[in-house]
Amino acid sequence: MSNSPTPRQILETLLPPLRLAAAYSKNIQSVIAACPEKTDQQNHFGAALSDADLSIQTFVEVALLGAYPQIRFYGEEYEKTANTKYFRSIDLGPEGDYLVTLDPIDGTRFYLDGHDNYQIIVGVLNHDEYEAVLAISPAQDCYYYALRGVGTFSGPLDASLDQCQKLQIENPKPLIYLGWGLSDQIPDVGPAYQINDLKTAYSDEQFAPNINAILKGELAGAILESGKFIDGAAIAFLAQEAGCIVTTLTGEPMPPLHTSQNYQRPGLIVATSATVHQDLLQVVAKTLLVSAG
């Protein structure tokens, strides 16, 4: 689309309001009141909804419509916000006509339970692949961003994009993250690794790392039953640009975004090394793919 902003320009435009949104989410976390939970979700992580989700989405929508009134935009709470009707589209566009996505509070359950590993995630999606992702961790005062083919960078929340340092994941812990529900199908991942399974490890008192921990070297890999455009697939893109291997469950390159359904990519593997990737492929072949066949 002619005269459309570049992915970097979109991130630069949104970073200042996102800093305010991050401060807002951090300041009210201890007193936040939960809204009625979503009824169309299969697990209590996806079902959680808070005032912060709705407020941050509205705030980002105002910033986008003020700066780029012709932009495509899909936010997690698009059905509840008053601004969806003002965007040109909520769908992926043709090549070069970017779709901006938002998860206003990724990890709302973590957020409501008082943990610090929730995020605000913005994506810039092209017809085939992500062009950029920005993920802010308000309670940890840091953020990550990646540009397609350029790499992933991290820095404190008050740093500009240029001030962030290129991310390198070194000496990751031998911990494998399993997406919700996979514990029933993948009982173990071999003697070389431990499993982080949210379904069994997490509680409101017990902290358990989310997939974003792979960016900090706290995970060696992850197996996801699917990757939503707004969160799991976006984090996978950050990991990939940081040097991780990201493939389908059978080891193939991820299919183009426009072939996906319901704003999510199919099951995927994220690995910090070729060795980890091969180990996880073998686990999936012996468990998920066998049971599916």
TrEMBL record:
InterPro entries (alphabetical): Inositol_monophosphatase-like (IPR000760)
GO MF assignments: metal ion binding
Species of origin: Acaryochloris marina (strain MBIC 11017)
Protein name from the UniProt record: Inositol monophosphatase family protein
Superkingdom to which the source organism belongs: Bacteria
CDD domains: IMPase_like
UniProt-listed SUPFAM superfamilies: Carbohydrate phosphatase
Cofactor: Mg(2+)
UniProt-annotated binding residues for Mg(2+): E76, D103, I105, D106, D231
Keyword Calcium: no
Lineage, highest ranks first: Bacteria, Bacillati, Cyanobacteriota, Cyanophyceae, Acaryochloridales
Keyword Lipid metabolism part of the UniProt annotation: no
Keywords (A to Z) from UniProt: Magnesium, Metal-binding
